[in-house]
Amino acid sequence: WFTHTRNKYSLPAHTLRLPGMRIYVLNKLSLIAAAQKQHHVLSFGPIMGQAIGKIAGTSNAANKNMTKDVLTDDGFLLGFNKAIYHTTAPGPSLDALTRRAASTFVDLIDGLKINTPRTCRVSLSAWTRSTILHGTTDAVYGTENPFHDPVVEAAWYAFEPGVTTIALRFIPSFATRTTRQAREVLVRSFTRYFSAGCPKEASDFMKARYNHIIRHQISNVQDIAKLEVAGAFSIITNSAPTAFWLLYHIFSDPAALEDCRLELALLVQEQDGVCYLDIESIKTSCPTLLSTFHEVMRHYGVAQSIRAVLEDHKLDNTHLLRKGSMIMMPATVQHFDPSVWGPDANDFHYKRLTKSIGDGAGYIFDSKASNRGAFRGFGGGLHLCPGRHFAINEILSLAALLILRCDIVPAGDGKWPAIRSDSLSSKGSAIIMPDHDLEVILCPRGSKKWTISSTVTQQFACLSTR
C-alpha cells in the first residue's frame, strides 16, 4: 500500500490523519537520511518505552526503571545497543555465537538421516522455523536453553504472532488471552533459567544483556524473565522467514544453486572422510550467496521504522513536523524504488547486490553512497539492528550446509511452485511470511560426515601438519 501510494501521487512525504494523531510517511531517501540524523528530536525511545512493558508484562517498578530516560543511551532502552554491541560486532563473541548455532544446525540435519539412501520429507517453512529457533537459542542461552523443552517451543509459536497485538493500548485483554497464556509458559521457563543468575554457559551476548538489566536496578527474577521473553522476539522472529525465502530462491533456481555450490566448495576441506566447512569465510568468499540473502531482505522486507516527534521540527528545511506526531519510514518504499534499483525493481534477481561490475544483466545494484540508505533490511541510523551480523552468519551457515549436503525438491511432481507472500501474516515480523508451507524432499548428495570449522582452526590444522 505504501509503495502504491508513492507511485500514484509521487510525493516525497504524506500525512495519515488518525483520531488524535498524525503520522508522516517519508518516501524520499534524502528525507529518511535527514530524519535519522535528528535522533534527539525524532526518537524511537518513547515508542519503545510504551510498548516494551506491554509486550513483556513487567511490573510497575520495572517499567518505572525502564522509562526513567528514554531519550539517551544512558537510559535502559536506548542504552541496550551500547551495552551489547561488543558481543554482536565482528569478533570472538560473534564467532562463538555463529559456531554454536552452526553446530546445532549440523546436529539437526544429521537428525533428519539424509545421509542414508532413504529420502527425508519435511514442511520447508515449519522445519526452517524450528531449526532457526533451536540454532539461535542454543547459541544465545547455552546448554540450559529453555527451548529444549517442546512445551516451551510450542508456547513460543503461540506467543509470537500476538506480540504486536498486546503492544497496542486499545486492544481488550480478552482478545489477547492466547498470547498472554503462552507468555506465562515462557516466563515460567525463563524464571527457572535465571533462578541463580545468568548461567555460566550462556553466551557473552546473554551475559551482557543480563548485566544491563541488573545495572538498571531491575533485579526481580520474574521481571528479568519477562524482559527476556520480549527480547527473544527480536533475535528469533525475522531469521526464520528470511532463511525460508533464501532456501526457496536458491533451490528453485538451478543457476543460483550451481553458483552458490561453486563458491561454497572452496570453503570445504576433507580429512579422514569428514568434510569441514569454514563458516567464518562465507560472507567474504561467497558473493552470490550473500547477494541472494540481501535480495531476499530487499524483496520481502516490510519493516516500518517509526519515530516520535518530540518537538516541532522542519525536516530538511522543507517539511514541518508537529510535536506529538509520529513519522514512519516503510522499507518497501525504498526497496522497490525504480530510481535506485532499476526498472525491474519488482523482480527478484539473486545477483542484484553483488559488488562486482555489471555483468550485462542490467540489475547490479549501484552501491554509491547516495543509494546505500535504500537498503533497509536491518533498519538504519542510530537504530540499525545490533544483531544483524549474527543473523546473517547463522542464516548463511544453515543455507550453506543444506546446499552442500543435499538436493531439495518439492514433493509430488518435483516442480517448484510460485509461492505468494502474505504481508498480513507477518504479525510484527520485518520479513513477509509465505502464504502456505511447501512439502519438500531432502535428497543426500553423499554419505560423508559434515562438521563446521573456521579460518582460525584451519590455520592451526595446517600448522600442525607441517
Number of domains: 1
CATH A-level architecture: Orthogonal Bundle
The value of Rg in angstroms is 23 Å
For this structure, the CATH topology is: Cytochrome p450
**CATH classification class:** Mainly Alpha
Mean pLDDT: 89
**Which strand order does the major sheet show?**
1-2-10-7-3
Proportion in helices: 40-55%
The biggest beta sheet reads: 5 strands, mixed
Distance between the termini: 62 Å
Structural class: alpha+beta
DSSP strand tally: 15
Poorly predicted spans: 356-364, 456-466
How many individual helices?
20
Blueprint of the fold:
Elements: H1 2-9, E1 13-18, E2 21-26, H2 29-37, E3 42-43, H3 45-56, H4 60-66, H5 79-88, H6 92-111, E4 120-123, H7 124-141, H8 150-159, H9 163-166, H10 177-193, H11 204-215, H12 221-236, H13 239-251, H14 254-265, E5 268-271, E6 274-278, H15 282-285, H16 287-300, E7 304-309, E8 313-315, E9 319-321, E10 326-330, H17 331-335, H18 338-341, H19 388-405, E11 406-410, E12 421-422, E13 433-434, E14 439-444, E15 449-453, H20 455-464
Parallel strand pairs: 2-10, 6-15
Antiparallel strand pairs: 1-2, 3-7, 4-14, 5-6, 7-10, 8-9, 11-14, 12-13
Helix pairs in contact: 3-12, 5-11, 6-7, 6-19, 7-13, 8-10, 10-12, 13-16, 13-19, 14-16
Cofactor: heme
Pfam families: p450
Protein name: Putative 25-hydroxycholesterol 7-alpha-hydroxylase
